[in-house]
Amino acid sequence: MDRSHERKLVENLKTGCKSSFQKLFDIYHKKIYNISRKMGLSQENAEDVVQELFLFIWSKREILNPDHSFNAFLQIISKRLVFKQIKSEVNKVSFNAYLQQYGMAIDNQTDDYIVFSDLEAYSQKGLDNLSEKRKQIFMLSKQHGLSNDEIAEKLNISKRTVENQLYRATKAVNEHLKKENISRK
């Protein structure tokens, strides 16, 4: 897109012009969706990122600076939203694995919520220590169920690298949970 055209659309968006918002959405939504998918999100979660991003843009339109690249701004915000989605999914996967490992039955929603919230906080601390690439590999394996070969192909890395990263991610999360007295290992 021509930089001057983008600048004009952003200027109009700042004043609440819905047609400029729609044009910017039409121009960028596929790109944001594709970035989200390449970062390992499911189709549904990638669509959620696009929706959340453009809702954010609309709600914060007054602070947009037409002199800055709108494309770069979208990419930065979308990557943050993708990482937020990944963290949420990792927490869900960790919680489900914990329930399966310890054979807990779900029968009380309030208790479940409290347990999930606590486990989510503990798991998140462990996951925050992982590099973004390691988190991505972990998510592709645990959340999306991709094989090591599929992950290697998708990320253009060796299968051995995938295996090493999965081993290190699992070990790091388990060590963190062990420190928090969550794991039996």
TrEMBL record:
Q: Which family does it belong to?
A: Belongs to the sigma-70 factor family. ECF subfamily.
| Residue span, RNA polymerase sigma-70 region domain | 24-88
UniProt cross-references to InterPro entries, sorted A to Z: RNA_pol_sigma-70-like, RNA_pol_sigma-70_dom, RNA_pol_sigma70_r2, RNA_pol_sigma70_r4_t2, RNA_pol_sigma_r2, RNA_pol_sigma_r3/r4-like, WH-like_DNA-bd_sf
Boundaries of each RNA polymerase sigma factor 70 region 4 type domain copy?
127-172
Query: Does this UniProt record's set of keywords contain Nucleotide-binding?
Result: no
* Name of this protein: Sigma-70 family RNA polymerase sigma factor
One family name in Pfam for this protein = Sigma70_r4_2
Q: Which UniProt keywords apply?
A: Sigma factor, Transcription, Transcription regulation
Q: Please report the organism this UniProt entry assigns to the protein.
A: Agaribacillus aureus
